[in-house]
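Archive record:
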Amino acid sequence: MPFKSTSPLSSLLRKSPFKPIQEHMRIVFNCICTLPPLFEALYNQEQDIVGECAEQIRQLETEADKIKSTFRLNMPTTLLLPVDRKDLLNLIADQDSLADSAEEIGKILSYREMEVPTELKALIDELLEGTIEVSGEAKKMIEELDEMVEVGFGGSRELKKVTAIISGVRKSEHNIDNILNRTRRTLYRIEGNLNPVDVMFWYKIVELIGDISNQAENMADRILLFLSR
């Protein structure tokens, strides 16, 4: 598709191909930050607020989708870019998957009234805290991309800063894996006391929360590819 010089996004791409990706990630992070109040409403059995939070996540995910679609349509095929065009498209897809997971959690909890087992509450809180942390690290990583471009990925100070952030993402993801294992073991231990359908949905919700940290680590791996080329 030809480069559209009149597009606002095209103007951003001329300056830096990372600007739309950074804006997209900010919206994705807002999606994820809506999960704690969503679960707080669930704990309090305030289903109307659960629905409001889920709708807020849906709207943010839709906004992120629009940025992703516009980015894809306006990404030039001939303009010299500091990184491979395919890598940028894959990066924004990685980011989008974080918002998709958050939206799916919102859908489940808004469509089905569920009670949180007492044994799971503290573990879910740990998961949410870790998820916000790893997503924040991923956002920080994306915000640093412009500085790397300015020095052609060769500035040692910027390189150390970004590799430290990537290390933080991986450490946070590893911590979340440990919490996920404890959560699954607890759920397995108590599942005989729960509605079988609820058990199925709780396993799915836990899996979706874990997916967010896995997807953040995928982003870190992709940034490492940028640095190694």
Notes: Confidence is low (pLDDT under 50) at residues 1-13. The two ends are 27 Å apart (CA to CA).
